[in-house]
Target: Large ribosomal subunit protein uL2
Amino acid sequence: MEKRLTWILPKNSGRNATGIVTTHHQGGRHKRFYREIDWKRNKRDIVARVVAMEYDPNRTANLALVQYIDGQRRYILAPVGMEIGQKVMAGESAPLTAGNALPLKSIPVGTLVHNLEIGPGQGAKLARGAGAAAVVVGFEEKNALIKLPSGEVRRFNLESYATIGQLANEEWKNVNLGKAGRKRNMGVRPTVRGVAQNPRSHSHGGGEGRSGEGMHPKTPWGKSARGTRTRRKFKYSRKLIAQRRK
Model:
């Protein structure tokens, strides 16, 4: 662990500033250190060498610690096939090998990518989980068409950066945790059925004896929980979606 790139991650256990639970099933996890990750890859056309591969408790993907020729070290997400000693680079002239970051205009159709920027210079926002990969499926006049892991085909600015390859640790979701205590160490508290709660805590709660939901399934805040599309009809990014996910 690179100490200059880490600090203790504050824990709020799903509570907001007034102490009210705003995210259920969180709390009681082990102390964690946050690793500062280079989402922007803004050291352009400078070669870096992978000096370590590390586990990150804050995400499903693994990390690679890279060192540039000027001595500076940074964390990046590790793609499939990355090894210690490998050279990586960011820039328009970078080779099309896993771990290198390029603008979308320089990436050919059919290439697997991750760490997608929504806008140029914003830093990676999409396809950042273990095993995730998006695919470059085509180009328009001013945009690249990318098929995201959800199945949605979306338009991206040609100057936005993406990193080549699929993220490693694909088997993370098949790991058997073995016991409830390990889940508690990860900060996940038990999930309680809505019908077993009181009406102040959940929209399914209340009633004498054992009672069903009595309504279409809802979240604790009354939003439809099954099948209903809740995306805003006139959201700013609507024109960027070329094909909705199934």
Notes: The chain is about 0% helix and 25% strand.
